[in-house]
Design brief:
The complex is a heterodimer of chains A (301) and B (391).
Chain A (H helix, E strand, L loop, with lengths): L2 E9 L10 H4 L20 H6 L2 H17 L5 E5 L5 H13 L8 H4 L5 H10 L4 E5 L5 H14 L5 E7 L22 E9 L7 E8 L5 H11 L7 E8 L8 E4 L1 H4 L6 H10 L7 E7 L5 E6 L1
Chain B lengths: L2 E10 L5 H10 L5 E2 L9 E2 L6 H7 L8 H14 L10 E6 L5 H12 L14 H12 L5 E4 L5 H14 L5 E8 L3 H10 L22 E9 H7 L5 E10 L12 H14 L8 E3 L6 H15 L6 E2 L2 H4 L6 H15 L1 E2 L21 E2 L5 E8 L3 E8 L2
Classes of the chains: A alpha/beta (301), B alpha/beta (391).
Chain lengths: 301, 391
């Protein structure tokens, strides 16, 4: 069941925060690029700001702006994160490995769980609704989005879906043995509010699907479009990561040149699709093939 | 639409399979004892007393990654045994975990900090999503795989996600539950929060001081009636209700009035279309921390008023197995229904003064258990409830 994108906010290495059209500002990432952070003080209390790691700051601010732009409280929150709160995880590892006495500071531990992000959002917004955290490697955003779309099918009216991941220096040690990508590890958060479709209500997430152990990318894309009764010729734009078959879509853009490497960056591609000028009746398809064998497909129209 | 439970699997300190868990629950035999490892020997914990190598060989697993993955494979394999794979039945795996491959990362990272050789390739096992993918591979399932990570409510939420996907026609059959290995990371974490009890934990007791940690995995297989017609799976119970709500109070503590828990319990009963008098047993979250048990008691009283059904926490058997707890306790809920039993809340002596609520202190046979309500509450104010019912 499709859902309308009511609001979408990204913070990351692009100058994306509260920009009306990402395509006007995005640029391929320069070497050693940094997060372009908004003024967090406007969104997060000073006490929280001192405690919060970059991923929490980015996610909470993006979520807060989505809430401001949609007015009615969210009746569900679904967040995807591939590696969770890495900075606090590493900080707590260091804390207990190097500890000499018997007492340990709990802050890093408290903030190390994957659902710190969604939990902090519920607290900051005073939101008592459904609150979920999905973590599925390179398909973390898609699984969170599938949950969000499920919430809409179940009758929810305003669902916050998001993805957030953060880079820490330690990750560089994983190259090239564990991570073969030549891209820089980066951080990013994209949150969007989705609502049930109403006539003429604007840009929509039409469908989202994930495949594991997938060796037939082309066939999977064809089946996905067929399921949605969409002809291949209606795909105006393909935003992709990793290898994809060359025959899909009129225009193909590798979105990782804008995001760098984090494993929920398909959410940023979703933002790019939202801002793209699509002709009437045409669609943007996000093909997330960041990791070989795992395929995320998101259709925006 | 009815959702049926057609398989159960469990591993924890009280047993390597469901039967051994049932025997321990009947015999009121806790598995919590002094830890076996350098990081656990100072504490009373519920450890599975086998090494990864022993587990892999004993259960003939393909998996050889993180302990979290291995424990998950064991319980999921038991739950899925006797189930056939067929391309007409869309089968998925949804698993909860809080630590994922931390058991490996923390060992390697210690070597790194101490300037020893650390094996970079081992960090491949770190991501939490890997444990679920490993379970899917072990079972030969190549459909939907999803990992939920909401701390101690992860498994309950995985069960809920599976049920919702079946109900909306996205899947026909799902292996759902959770798994967590006991790691130095979690032991240190709970130590930093100072919520350990140095003695055996005493859920719902006035003198309770905190929890004992455990490890393990619990999985159930759920499917639709159409799926059963295809698969020939044998229904043993129904999954009737589920809910998740946010307490939105504190990152680690529950609200004193149990607001989030009250929401999740009452919403799950609404989904199940059940009245308070239809619940015959509550398997409480009951971690034995002063904060949780009081808050949960209040929530139960908010929903059930003066007629609180028989309730107990089984954490004093298994220890708090974190993300696996809701999976193990879903298995216990099925056992309660199938065998007409209420399980003991071990080590209980004094009711909490403020609530005067008396749990079931001995494992008891009863005529009939129609519906069991099971709570799981996690960090971040993540409150979940599932309801398992008789066929």
């Amino acid at each position: 069941m499709p859902a309308v994108i009511k609001s979408i906010v990204s913070i990351g290495h692009q100058d994306s925060f509260q920009k009306h059209d990402l395509w006007e500002t995005i640029q391929p990432l320069a070497e050693h690029s940094q997060v372009i952070a908004p003024d967090y003080k406007a969104y997060i209390s000073p006490a929280s700001l001192r405690r919060f790691s970059p991923v929490l700051r980015m996610a909470l601010t993006a979520a807060q702006v989505c809430q401001n732009e949609t007015e009615v409280p969210f009746d569900a929150v679904s967040v995807g994160t591939s590696l969770g709160c890495l900075k606090d995880t590493e900080r707590f590892l260091q804390t207990f490995i190097t500890a000499t006495g018997d007492t340990l500071s709990p802050t890093a531990f408290i903030q190390s769980t994957h659902n710190t992000i969604a939990g902090a959002i519920s607290m900051a917004l005073g939101n008592h609704s459904y609150n979920m955290t999905h973590t599925q490697n390179s398909l973390s955003f898609e699984t969170a989005l599938i949950d969000g779309l499920l919430c809409i099918r179940e009758g929810k009216q305003n669902v916050l879906v998001g993805a957030a991941d953060e880079a820490i220096e330690f990750l560089d040690l994983l190259k090239p043995e564990v991570v073969r990508s030549g891209l820089q590890f980066t951080s990013g958060a994209t949150f969007l509010s989705i609502q049930p479709e109403k006539p003429g209500s604007g840009r929509r997430i039409v469908d989202c699907m994930v495949h594991f152990n997938n060796e037939h990318t082309e066939a999977s894309i064809a089946a996905f479009l067929e399921k949605n009764n969409i002809d291949g010729s209606a795909i105006e734009l393909v935003l992709f990561a990793g290898e994809i078959p060359s025959s899909t879509g009129v225009k193909q853009i590798n979105y990782e040149q804008y995001t760098g490497l984090y494993y929920s960056s398909a959410a940023f591609a979703c933002h790019l699709a939202n801002d793209y000028a699509l002709p009437e009746g045409k669609y943007a398809l996000i093909v997330n093939h960041q990791v070989k064998g795992k395929l995320g497909l998101t259709l925006v129209g | 639409m009815d959702i049926f439970v057609t398989g159960i699997g469990a591993i924890s300190c009280i047993g390597n399979n469901v039967q051994e868990h049932f025997d321990a629950l009947i015999a009121e035999r806790s598995g919590i004892k002094k830890g076996l490892h350098p990081h656990s020997e100072r504490f009373l914990v519920g450890e599975v007393p086998m090494t990864n190598e022993e587990l892999t060989s004993h259960f003939q697993l393909k998996a050889n990654g993180s302990r979290t993955g291995i424990l998950g494979c064991i319980a999921a394999k038991e739950a899925f045994s006797g189930h056939m794979l067929h391309h007409t039945i869309r089968t998925g795996v949804i698993s909860g975990t809080s630590v994922g491959g931390m058991d490996i990362s923390e060992t390697e990272y210690r070597s790194y900090i101490e300037n020893q050789v650390h094996a970079i390739s081992r960090y491949k096992q770190h991501p939490s999503g890997n444990s679920s993918e490993e379970i899917a591979r072990e079972l030969g399932i190549d459909g939907f795989v999803n990992t939920i990570s909401t701390a101690c409510s992860s498994a309950a939420n995985a069960i809920m996600m599976g049920a919702r996907m079946i109900r909306m026609g996205l899947l026909d059959r799902v292996v759902v539950g959770g798994t967590d290995a006991l790691t130095e990371f979690t032991i240190s974490g709970f130590r930093s929060l100072m919520i350990f009890d140095e003695e055996w934990c005493r859920p719902f007791d006035e003198t309770r001081k905190g929890l004992n940690l455990g490890e393990g995995a619990g999985f159930i297989v759920i499917e639709s009636a159409e799926s059963i017609a295809w698969s020939g799976g044998k229904a043993i119970a129904k999954l009737k209700g589920w809910s998740n709500a946010s307490d939105a109070y504190h990152q680690t503590a529950s609200s004193p009035d149990g607001y989030g828990a009250t929401l999740s319990i009452s919403e799950a009963m609404k989904v199940a279309n059940l009245k308070p008098e239809d619940i015959d047993y509550i398997n409480a979250h009951g971690t034995a921390t002063p904060n949780n048990d009081l808050s949960e008691s209040k929530a139960i009283m908010n929903v059930f008023g003066k007629n609180v059904p028989p309730f107990s926490s089984t954490k004093a058997f298994t220890g708090h197995t974190l993300a696996a707890a809701g999976g193990l306790e879903a298995v216990f809920s099925v056992l309660a229904i199938r065998n007409g039993c209420l399980f003991a809340n071990l080590n209980h002596r004094n009711v909490i003064e403020e609530t005067q609520l008396m749990p079931v202190t001995r494992t008891t046979n009863v005529e009939r258990v129609r519906n069991v309500l099971s709570n799981s509450f996690g960090f971040g104010g993540n409150n979940s409830t599932i309801i398992v019912g008789e066929l």
